[in-house]
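User: Is it possible to get a 3D structure for a protein together with its bound compound? The compound here is 2'-O-acetyl adenosine-5-diphosphoribose. I've pasted both below.
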Amino acid sequence: MLAVSPTDRLFVLTGAGVSAESGIPTFRGVGGLWRNHRIEEVASPEAWRRNPYLVWEFYSMRRRVAAAAKPNPAHCALAQLEARLGKRLFLCTQNVDNLHEQAGSNRVVHMHGELFKSRCDSCERRPFEHTETFEPPFEIPRCECGGRIRPHICWFGEVPFELDRVFSELEKCTIFMAVGTSGVVEPAASFVAQVAGQAKTIYVGPEEPRNAHSFDECCVGEAGKMLPDLLGR
Ligand code: OAD
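Assistant: Yes, that's possible. Here is the predicted structure of the complex:
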């Protein structure tokens, strides 16, 4: 079990692997393609300009999959940890599903956006709850300003959300744990190197991530099986 002293501050970074046992496919590895498109081909501003219909079809499919998913023991263990540690836990996810919230986590930072929110691609209107899905043929939804409504997702080539807060929490942490992320996509892949020497660093997942050399410890196993024991029930 992970030793957490009363003065420790935990930074937990989760990736697609934490939701894998809930039935949401990961991006890389088996099943990492959608209709022969690489994720970069349907998740970028270029894709949106080239074919917004294809982009909405992709995110509609992901909305349907995520809407059917339920939190697994890994999400629950992290929610219980928040209940114990309060603000000494900072939970930062690259995932756009809402399974951490469904498990009871109240303070989740979604650095890559949220699947069930949309925003206008032209005006400053705030992102809003939006669960609609789109089947062909369909019209691209429009904002009152005339702009097109797009998923509230950080696409390739865009800047992740809330980075100031994320980097400020990284500076303060004494334990850094990454769960179910391949260590490929920046800036999250470099978080562990940034806290080296300042924090104890642990990775949890069934295989070593690409940045495994930067972690003090890699706990090999599925998050839903490992986290309840590692974090305490
Ligand atoms: P990846 O799909 O790159 O990696 C998923 C990781 O989860 C792999 O390292 C698997 O070994 C691991 N994994 C699989 N099953 C697991 C389980 N049961 N428990 C724990 N780990 C498991 O996903 P991310 O690293 O999250 O960005 O990908 C980062 C970003 O790339 C995503 O947020 C997305 C994508 O492009 C955007 O859409 C902007």
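The mean pLDDT is 95. The radius of gyration is 18 Å.
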